[in-house]
Design goal:
mainly alpha
């Protein structure tokens, strides 16, 4: 599951960052290097893995000095919500909820909620609408239920 992967990756990425300052291929040790299957399930698994790694790395960013990196990561994760895979969307939501407490994202909660609500109601596909619903839940979970009070969603 996404939570198990996050629990596994976060300590690993933390140790890599502490030891090397940045990650490269030598940090992966004896990880498998053979090609992953090329089908829809394998593609979804790869996307989910990238989302989890991206989210886990973003959680390690400092609040003040890495604001721009946090904002860019947030935008990438929001974009990944439009992926048709529910498991990818669920993983994105898990990462987003934890990331909402970082940088200056909390101050932009109302804007994010309104964008996601617009997508949820008027999205071009079911996957986009479902992803936006995941986004709303992640933003509210990460910012607190009181974040709904300032938005037009109430």
């Amino acid at each position: 599951s996404a939570k198990d992967a996050m629990d596994f990756l976060l300590p690993l990425l933390t140790s890599i960052r502490r030891r090397h300052g940045k990650a490269d291929k030598s940090c992966l040790g004896d990880s498998p290097t053979e090609k992953v299957l090329d089908n829809i399930g394998a593609t979804d698994d790869r996307k989910e893995g990238v989302v989890i790694a991206l989210g886990a790395a973003a959680i390690l960013f400092g609040d003040v000095e890495d604001v721009e990196k946090i904002n860019e990561t947030f935008k990438m994760l929001i974009t990944a919500l439009s992926t048709a895979s529910e498991s990818v969307q669920s993983s994105v939501a898990l990462c987003l909820s934890k990331l909402m407490k970082k940088g200056d994202l909390k101050g932009q909660t109302e804007t994010f909620l309104e964008e996601q609500m617009k997508e949820c109601l008027h999205g071009s596909s079911f996957a986009c609408r479902r992803g936006a619903a995941y986004g709303i839940s992640a933003i509210v979970k990460g910012s607190g239920i009181a974040s709904l009070k300032g938005s037009t969603l109430n």
